[in-house]
Amino acid sequence: MQKRVLNYRPDWNLTTDEFASSNYYPINSAIAIRNLDNNMQLTIMNDRSQGAAVLEDGSIEIMQNRRLLHDDGRGVGEALNEVNSDGWGIAVNTRYYVQLFDLTKTAST
User: Fold this and answer.
1) Which of 50, 55, 67, 107 has the highest count of CB atoms within 10 angstroms of its CB?
2) 3-state secondary structure of 5
């Protein structure tokens, strides 16, 4: 796991007008947030690579599937309307495992 800080890059000064997309990162196995005031950690483990972010304190956001009927002007340049052979939007069956634990009683790295 790699520590991420909101609106921060260790190698350069980040200046952006795209708050959400600038703070999304790929997660291959898990994302976690820690509350150092009460020594608690929330970890969400995923079964596939996805994009995720912590855009505000106490909240984890995971992008499971993005579907748009019209281009939203956010970089793709076209609608994101993936459908199955029957014309229905694709379903993404993802499994998540959630763990909440006290850092004073359980080791985590």
Assistant:
1) 50
2) coil
From the DSSP assignment, how many helices (H) and strands (E) are in the chain?
1, 6
Q: Rounded to an integer, what is the distance from CA 86 to the centroid of its chain?
A: 30
The token pair at 74 is 């956010």
Domain boundaries, the chain: 19-65+94-102
Q: How confident is the prediction along the chain (109 residues), in pLDDT tens digits per residue?
A: 788 888 888 888 888 888 888 888 999 999 999 999 999 999 999 999 999 999 888 899 998 877 788 887 767 788 788 888 998 988 888 899 999 999 898 665 5
In degrees, rounded to 5, the angle at the alpha carbon of residue 96 between the alpha carbons of residues 20 and 103 is: 85
